[in-house]
Design a protein that fits this description.
About 30% of the residues lie in helices and about 30% in strands. It has about 325 residues and is an alpha+beta fold. The chain folds into 2 domains: about 1-140 and about 310-325, Aminopeptidase (3-Layer(aba) Sandwich); about 155-270, Gcn5-related N-acetyltransferase (GNAT) (Aminopeptidase, 3-Layer(aba) Sandwich). The strands form 3 sheets. Strands 2-5-6-8-17-9-14-13-12-11-10 form an 11-stranded mixed β-sheet, with helices on both faces. Strands 1-3-4-7 form a 4-stranded antiparallel β-sheet, with helices on both faces. A two-stranded antiparallel ribbon has the order 15-16.
Length: about 325
């Protein structure tokens, strides 16, 4: 017998424990990360049980129209989470029950931000196939630029020259316990000046999240003497090092500090991670590309991988029954 529920805070330990042996393991699905912005979103995460055992989950939040949910509005991607050893038909069966449950509970649409495959240590494309059967609309595609360590492409000559300049200028890279210098002296001023916005995470939030996920959120800064000139905040998963925030002062860009910083980090993680994710280069909901970002990230040998976004009409959940018979 299969039972489906919406998440409640009393399920927190059950939720977090399920993640340990799931596909697409990332601390961002852990409630210690997800719940930091619980005041901004109405949680509508879904849990699926078979014979009383938790077998699948989906992080999700209610949209303002109250008839649709996104998996998840506060996360880069949401995904449908299952165990590593789950077979295809079971995955599709659980996904069917999830979509059907949403329809029964007056949720007309699910906006699913599918997890990029390189975050999954074991292939996890069953949901992409299910979305085809559901006639889901792919309403957005972002391009992330990623280094695959086993197939690493050499740096472009411009990046090499810039790194040599930084070495000549005696730039130093440090891993930091505090985010304060980077946030207050580099990141916030740059975002304010260039885009008129603040970081998604406040200094207080990123500090608290790092404390709760100390091995998964790491800060590196580049210095010219005692002056901070560049920095990056890394989100680390079992397979991926992701640059969540990247920023540099004018000095840090001119003297090679930013390039030297990333050369250091890319090499540091090359022996024990599969991918280095620079993040997306898109603007305007995926419809345009920031050519400057694209050029810079490709300069380190990063190449394109897509993030797929699907809109699913929950009334079509019965489509999946045809392939489960």
């Amino acid at each position: 017998m299969i039972e489906v529920k919406f998440y409640k805070s009393e399920y927190v330990n059950e939720w977090n424990n399920f993640l340990i042996n799931s596909k697409g393991q990332t601390f961002m699905f852990n409630r210690s990360y997800m719940d930091y912005h619980s005041d901004r979103f109405i949680d509508r995460s879904v849990l699926i049980y078979e014979k009383g055992e938790l077998v699948a989950m989906m992080p999700a939040s209610l949209n303002v129209d109250s008839i649709s949910i996104t998996s998840h509005s506060g996360l880069t991607f949401g995904s449908f989470i299952v165990k590593e050893n789950l077979r295809t038909t079971k995955t599709i069966d659980y996904f069917y029950h999830c979509i059907s449950f949403l329809h029964i509970n007056n949720i007309s649409y699910l906006y699913l931000k599918q997890i990029p495959f390189f975050y999954c240590d074991i292939t996890s494309d069953e949901v992409d196939y299910a979305n085809f059967i559901l006639e889901a609309e792919m309403y957005r595609v972002d391009i992330a630029y990623v280094i695959q360590y086993k197939k690493q492409i050499p740096y472009q000559e411009r990046r090499i020259r810039s790194i040599k300049k930084a070495v000549k200028n005696e730039i130093e890279v440090k891993q930091e316990n505090s985010f304060e210098k980077f946030w207050n002296e580099i990141l916030i001023p740059n975002l304010k000046e260039r885009f008129g916005v603040n970081p998604v995470h406040s200094l207080e939030e990123i500090t608290e999240l790092s404390y709760k996920n100390e091995k998964s959120i790491v800060q590196y800064n580049a210095y010219l003497g005692s002056q901070i000139i560049a920095g990056t905040t890394l989100f680390i998963t079992p397979t991926v090092v992701h640059a969540q925030y990247i920023s540099a002062s004018d000095e840090g860009r001119k003297n090679g500090g930013l390039d030297f910083l990333f050369d250091f980090i890319i090499k540091h993680y090359s022996d024990h991670k599969k991918f280095f994710d620079f993040g997306i280069v898109n603007e305007n909901s995926g419809k345009t590309i920031n050519q400057g970002l694209l050029d810079w990230k490709e300069g380190f040998g990063a190449r394109a991988y897509v993030h797929r976004f699907y809109k699913i009409d929950t009334i079509k959940s019965k489509n999946l029954l045809k392939i489960l018979q």
